[in-house]
Amino acid sequence: MKVLVIGSGGREHAIIKALKKEERIKQILAAPGNGGINCDAECVPIKATDISAVKEFVLTNNINYVIVAPDDPLALGMVDVLEKEGIRCFGPNKSSARIESSKVFSKNLMKKYGIPTASYETFSDIKQALSYVESSSFPLVIKADGLALGKGVIIAENKADAITAVNSIMLEKKFGESGSNIVIEEFLTGPEVTALSFTDGKTIVPMISSMDHKRVFDGNKGPNTGGMGVIAPNPHYTKEIAAVCEKTIFLPTVSALQKEGCPFKGCLYFGLMLTPRGPMVIEYNCRFGDPETQAILPLLETSLFDIMSAVTDGKLSEIDIRWKNAHCACVVMASGGYPQSYKTGFAINGLNSAGGVENGAVIYHAGTEYKEGGFFTAGGRVLGISATGNTLETALEEAYKTAGKLTFKDAHYRKDIGKY
Ligand code: AMP
Ligand code: GLY
């Protein structure tokens, strides 16, 4: 069995490390992968969004299964193209990936099916958007419709900020065509929870809950990033809340997508806020979270490949998914300056030749390159350091102990993961 994983970040590295435990899988390949992934899989230099090159590679190399991990190839329809060739895939098709690739689609879906979310209006006309802002109270949340690397959300504290945000998205096209349409929504408050789930379009099985830390600096300060660290499970997510989410959000979403003619197969990501009015959806993603995956898959006991195959075959109800009764913490080491501009190409000290450390946490490579016998920084988020423990405290202690042994120029990581 040959499996190809599309993508190049810490999430893909975590998926690959989980698949490495499978005896059936004789070869794992990654397109394009990164310096650390190269230690666990064979990297092929194909861009994650190059659908025709991926298709040709899969057909000429007899790949049996393709896991499409990032949002953009899913939104572009990579799964549709591969499935047409008879290739088994993990990930939604283009139509169901709209749940992430279009916020207008996902908000309208929630409204139509009564799934709790912030109240909102959508706009394709800048004049109407600005006049809505004039008559609103604040804070107000302004979102570009399309994919924007997790940066297309602006929380405007006052009218002036809101006008600037609308202009930057719709007029200056700060996020490109993603901003042709916008959603303006009510500002919600409460703890945030990431609930990843496996679904085959009929059955949905939530994974262990987690808590991302999106702001770049300690104390939840500074701009939003792709995620600076995660803990799993999420301490705010009680059994009672989970039961409410299952009934009011998870099952209705799967059924809504089915009714709309785009049943979702893959990993469905629920970004939730536990508001005083109950749990609400902040966003959906059509894929595993990054870095959430790096704190969730280490807790999975059941074979990841068995689950993925069951999702592909529409047989998720037949599989029993078990989790370790433990905690996992992932601390992200980033390049100084991220999420704004940053330099790369700095040597990373403290890693062994396999890209990990002896007697410490697991290291997932997010943005690294291997050259001249060593690892170098090659992205904004560089490493994810994940540790498992019987308690959250022991997991965090281990992750931070390992982080303390790793250095590169201008490295930055939050020291307060798990405190929020
Ligand atoms: P998103 O990319 O939609 O997950 O948004 C990024 C972050 O912005 C979320 O994790 C929240 O912290 C914040 N956010 C998004 N929508 C809202 C909202 N309606 N109310 C308050 N915060 C929000
Ligand atoms: N960590 C947030 C995301 O994957 O979208």
What does this protein look like?
With 420 residues, the protein is α+β, with helices and mostly antiparallel strands. It has 4 domains: 2-93, Rossmann fold, CATH 3.40.50.20; 119-186, Dna Ligase, domain 1; 192-318, ATP-grasp fold, B domain (D-amino Acid Aminotransferase, Chain A, domain 1, 2-Layer Sandwich), CATH 3.30.470.20; 327-412, Glycinamide Ribonucleotide Synthetase, Chain A, domain 4. The protein is 29% helix and 26% strand. It contains 12 helices and 22 strands. The strands form 6 sheets. Strands 3-2-1-4-5 form a 5-stranded parallel sheet, sandwiched between helices. A hairpin with a 3-residue loop joins strand 13 (215-217) and strand 14. The longest helix is centred in the middle third of the chain and has 21 residues, at 239-259. The radius of gyration is 21 Å and the shape is globular. The chain starts with a strand and ends in a 17-residue tail after the last helix. The structure holds adenosine monophosphate (AMP) and glycine (GLY). Glycine (GLY) is lined by residues 150, 212, 226-227, 285, 289-290, 292.
Chart the SSEs and their pairings.
Elements: E1 2-7, H1 10-19, E2 27-32, E3 42-43, H2 51-60, E4 65-68, H3 71-76, H4 78-84, E5 88-90, H5 94-101, H6 103-113, E6 120-123, H7 126-134, E7 140-144, E8 153-156, H8 159-171, E9 182-186, E10 192-199, E11 204-206, E12 211-212, E13 215-217, E14 221-224, E15 229-232, H9 239-259, E16 266-275, E17 278-285, H10 292-296, H11 304-312, E18 327-334, E19 362-365, E20 368-371, E21 374-377, E22 381-389, H12 392-403
Parallel strand pairs: 1-2, 1-4, 2-3, 4-5
Antiparallel strand pairs: 6-9, 7-8, 7-9, 10-11, 10-16, 12-15, 13-14, 15-18, 16-17, 18-22, 19-22, 20-21
Helix pairs in contact: 7-8
